[in-house]
Structure formats: C-alpha cells, structure tokens
Amino acid sequence: MLPAPSRPPRLRALAVAAAGLVVLTSLTGCTQIASAFNGLQQNAVSTPAPRPAVTQAVSMPYDSKFTYDGSVSLSTDVADGLEVRLDVWAADPKRTQEWAPDNDKTFGFAVNVVDHRVDEKAVLTQKRRVYMSMISITSQVSQSTIGQQQMMSPFQFSADPRTLVPSDTMRSDRGLLLNTFQGGLLVPTTTIHQLPADTYGITLQFALQVWVEGTANTDTSFQQQTVYQVLPIAIFSPTTPTQ
Asked: Which residue, among 166, 162, 154, has the nearest Cα to 196 in the 3D structure?
C-alpha cells in the first residue's frame, strides 16, 4: 500500500493563499462553502442505463496520477503565458488506495490563474484578469462486470462560483476573479459517495466557463471560453492487490 501522500509545497502554499483570497477567515466559513457545494452535488440524480444480463468479469488497470501522488495540478493555457490552474487533493481517506466503492471519498480543490508575463506579486492592474462564471463537474464510472447496470454520473455539480464564497470576494458581472493573490475559488472538501461494488475507476470531468482579459487593465478586451479538464481516479475493492 502506498504511504499517505504529502501535499507538494506548491499545494500547501496555494491552500494558504487561497484561504485568504476568498476570505475564509474561520472554520465556519470553510464549512459553509463545503456545505453549499455538497448540498447542490447531492441533489444530482444518478440514472442507471439498462444493459443485457451478462455477467462476464474483466480485469483492467486504471492509470491515475492523482491516486499515485494523492494530489494533482492540472493546467490549461487560456492565452499566451496565461494559465488556469486546477489543483485537487485527497482529503479523507488521504491514502488513496483506501478509496473503495462503499465508503465516502472526500477531496478538495482550488482554481486559480497565473499570468507568467508579470511577477506574481504585481498589482492587479498589471495582470490579465480571468473571471469564472460557472463551474460544472460530471463523472463516469468504469466497472469490471460487463452487462451490469451502469451508473451514469454518480458525482455531478454545477454552480456559479460566486455563490460558494463570501459576498465581499472580488467579482464582477463576468464572475469570480481568479487571479493569484487577488481572488480564486477554494472548495476545502466535497465527497464522492457510494459507487457500484464492481467500480475500479471514476473519471471526473471539469468544465469552467471563464472570461479572459486580452490586455491588462482593458475592460474591452475580454473574451469568453470554456476550460475542460479530466481527472481519472482509481477505486479499489477489498480484493484489489496493493503495492
């Protein structure tokens, strides 16, 4: 079994910075954000799709850097030298080889942006701003028994990120500001609940609607685009061999 992964220095710094950026000044604030996120997520309906009654078992590996390291940083270029960064880490259990179909699997994530054309400590007017107006997460399970009913999107969520942070967080009609040291979205914990017993993997599919500033401090230069990221996560049964 892999040892409990330690959070990389960049993630530790990001968590500290993001906590201040979204004005998470108390445990109550974090709890409210997690509750809002999980409450909306739990309202999602999982619809099984009918399959032929065949019970042929297959054994397949599931490649997941998140599972191996316990955390992952996913980056998308939205302009030259401008990237949107999605960081995801295992929260409970922290040992990702304890992520099984029948237990709760809790993770946290943060969304920020980095403008490589300027120093990260530069004032906001020197940076190309990025606002996020919507975040959506869907999911797909991989099951080892062919012909059984497949669970469709067992974890899904969609919300305006401005509803997940305190009202004084920097924002505009374009959405929540993501720029490092000026804004961002931090969701400390959210949970994937019970999955079919034969699940050996789940893939989370993130879609972020963003407005990207073409020239720093120029309101007329914004353009909208959608950022997509895919996160595979391995799921282990009690009989799954561990390393």
From this structure: 154
pTM of the model as a whole: 0.74
pLDDT in tens, 51-66: 443 344 444 468 999 9
How does pLDDT run across 179-233, given as a tens digit for each residue? Answer: 977 789 999 999 999 999 999 999 999 999 999 999 999 999 999 999 999 999 9
Task: Rounding to the nearest 10 degrees, give the CA dihedral for residues 130, 10, 141, 157.
Answer: -40
Q: Which structural domain, as residue segments, surrounds residue 187?
A: 9-234
In a domain, 4, yes or no: no
- Alpha-carbon gap, residue 199 to 223, rounded angstroms: 40
> 232 near 63, Cβ under 8 Å?
yes
| Residue 2 belongs to some domain of the structure | no
Count of domains forming the chain? 1
